[in-house]
Amino acid sequence: MPLSSTHAARLALLALAPCLALASGCSSTPKPKDLTAQAAAPVLPPPATPAPSTLDPDAPGASAVRIDDRILGACHLERKQAYFDFDSAKVGADAAATLAQIAVCFATGPLAGRSLQLVGHADPRGETEYNFALGQSRADAVAGFLAQKGLEKARVASTSRGELDATGSDEPGWARDRHVDVLLAP
Q: Which neighbouring-strand residues pair with 160?
């Protein structure tokens, strides 16, 4: 005897009900939030800042790419601060020159064959999840820049500490909190 469309619909619903129950959250672990959408929307509007070439570590809006002393020595680099804007992961012109030298040093120079660890940081303002995503975006931006300059992606690992290490309580302190550590991997 052929099934009516009502009976077919009921059978389909009965067959799918256990699957829907399993898929709707039988897990005790909550789903992670989608940080991509949060990372795209800034928590605070960026303050007016001078051009990156005029920033210093204590200036509002400054954010440093901090380079491990072992890398500075092996690559014969001067201790410089390289900056990117507040609430941004874009590698600026000041950072680009230093990072390009690091890419050459790791690709064909004294540190050829060695690996890098990049650790992104954020100041404590904003939501914790957002700050982790922003720190990761900063580290990933530096990794992407290094890859464009010839450093193999497999030799660069990036992570985020978000606001975990932040110590600032005012604009100059927050500026120092916003950075990416460029470390020689073990």
A: 120
Task: Report whether 175 contacts 58 (CB < 8 A).
Answer: yes
Q: What contacts 186, CB < 8 A, 6 or more positions away?
A: none
| Domain boundary assignment for the chain | 50-184
Per residue in 72-97, pLDDT (tens digit) is 999 998 876 555 566 778 777 777 88
Question: Phi/psi at 139 (nearest 5 deg)?
Answer: -65, -40
Q: Which of 121, 132, 71 is nearest to 99 (CA)?
A: 71
Please, are residues 164 and 177 in contact by the beta-carbon 8 Å criterion? no
Q: Which CATH superfamily is domain 50-184 in?
A: OmpA-like domain (3.30.1330.60)
Nearest to 124 by CA among 43, 35, 36: 43
Q: What is the SS3 assignment for 34?
A: coil
pLDDT tens for 151-183 read 999 999 999 999 999 998 998 888 888 889 999
Q: Compute the C-alpha angle 112/116/121, nearest 5°.
A: 155
